[in-house]
Amino acid sequence: MEHEATRPKAFLIDLDGTLYFKGKPYPGAIETVNYLREKDYQLRFLTNTTAKTPKMLHAQMHGLGFDIHENEIFNATYACLLYLRSRVGIGCHFMVDDAVKAYFKEIPSDDEAPDFVVVGDYGERFDFHALNHAFRLLMNGAELIALQKGLYWFSSEGMFLDCGAFVTLLESAADKTAKVMGKPSETFFRLALDDLQLSPSEVIVVGDDITSDIVGARTMEMRSILVKTGKFKPNQLENLITEPTWVLESISELRQLF
């Protein structure tokens, strides 16, 4: 049992690859969330999923059996909306799913001379025409916003390229650096910390992705737990790009730590 002096007050927990995978909860994941609630830890769920709004994610997680509240879910789409709201008088070219574009309805859309090109989950619409149009907008002065920079994701059908692969293409072609809204950006983690009203030392990040979850935690000087599920690969422990505080076989082992 962790010493009381270092006992956290909250956990920032990843969703896909940590709590569930390919549409199914991991064994013990639902029970772990319930356990943390019973122990009065504050919980926030941070995900780079950009094809869904927080409301849609809440419905999905509720359907899987998780006791998660909508206001506890922070995704890159929500972080981007907050950022764009703070930029008065801007227009955006959105490369996002239609449901997510509706989520941005208060932000003016401009497909000819925007201030920002916003790239999220666009699926099969990431074709040459769409990418070349975005490239031209960037070359004409627009800035690039990436909802997240994950390179691939898993579904029941197998692996798929994620929006980060196309963001990287646009960055290279247009010689631009994208402003990243999701993990591991400091902006994203700060959003959750501000909502919790806690300091980084009081919060632990839990996730399966070293490059987003663990790197983000280290950037914010938070402790972290890497779970060996989802995107985790055993060889990542041989050449760690950053050191997690703990490594667990799965999130179900979290109950043994705290």
Describe this structure in words.
The protein has 258 residues and is α/β, with parallel strands linked by helices. Helices cover 33% and strands 20% of the residues. The strands form four sheets. Strands 5-4-1-12-13-14 form a six-stranded parallel β-sheet. Strands 6-7-8-11 form a four-stranded parallel β-sheet, covered by helices on one side. It has a two-stranded antiparallel ribbon with strand order 2-3. Strand 4 (42-47), helix 2 (54-64) and strand 5 (73-75) form a beta-alpha-beta unit. It is globular and about 55 Å long. The model is unreliable at 1-5 (pLDDT under 50).
Explain the layout of strands and helices.
Layout: E1 10-13, E2 20-21, E3 24-25, H1 29-38, E4 42-47, H2 54-64, E5 73-75, H3 76-85, E6 92-95, H4 98-103, E7 116-119, H5 128-139, E8 143-146, E9 152-155, E10 158-161, H6 163-174, E11 179-180, H7 186-196, E12 203-207, H8 210-219, E13 223-227, E14 246-248, H9 254-257
Parallel strand pairs: 1-4, 1-12, 4-5, 6-7, 7-8, 8-11, 12-13, 13-14
Antiparallel strand pairs: 2-3, 9-10
Helix pairs in contact: 5-6
